[in-house]
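User: Can you write out an input/output pair for a complex, sequences first and structure second?

Assistant: Here is one pair. Inputs:
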Amino acid sequence: MTTKILVLADLHGGSKYGVATSDWVSDRIKGRSHCLEMLEQFNRVRDDVGKVDRLFLLGDLADGANPKEQGKDRIGDDDDQVEMICQLIRTVRGSPKIRVVEGTLYHGGVARLDKQIAEKLGAEKDQLGNSAPKFWLGNIDGVRFSLAHKITVSQSSWQYRTTPLALRLVLTRLNKQEDPSRHMVLIRAHCHTYQGVFFKRQMGVTCPGLEARTPFGEERNPENNPDVGGLFFDVSDDNYHMQPYAKSIDAKVYQL
Amino acid sequence: MSFTIKFRNFEPIVLDPLPEDDDLEESEMPVDVAPKPVGTLLPQEIPAKLRKEGGVLQQWKMK
């Protein structure tokens, strides 16, 4: 038996820095956004993985009002953002079962755009009937998955980025969210970079996003190069293969 | 069961910075993007219906 799982997060559809399809980007906006460059990255991952059985969408799929950019990065209203992202996700091959966890309030807003997208896509619901919970803990093919959007992004030198992931793996074990008979895969997003910590039976990884460098990101942490792409899991013959798609967006260097 | 990780080398990309918003035509600028004094609510806390009616964020249509 083979199961293929694609994980995507932080698409930020509706931002001029996020992903959008060409139908939703006017000629004038093309030169004033990175939407189509991000679409190229989305297509690269989608086409490389081919048909998948499951698709995990880990939040901030639409950019919403985004007050952190003062709304200046918007290329479409909430309804357009939701519709555009749904159209894009439907191009993933294999008619996968979809599971969504909800992202941040400042992108999803009270309109809960991630939940709207989940419902439009017919995403699987949790035990409480919620198609976009904040957290999902469940078993697939003998592996326990822990899915949520947010993780702190450590910037201190000695801790660096793996510490928040390792901390969550420790807490997962201490709080008995693990199943001793299963391997554990913990996936988070939000940080727009790929990193992982790996032990014999535990794996903690962050999923790259599909958003270019933003003024908000460069104000907070200009040394941080975002990664674009996703994660791909391929389970076969009792082996769990994981392949990150993580393409760095490097800072532009100017020659004076 | 065992975990394996397949590493592939992806060449980084560099994107040109986007032009400043000031270059946009005024009619297409996101007018009044700063939160208006509607109580103490932040933009994301304003009901979607009100936002769509232009209460806080002037919607920036693409076409």
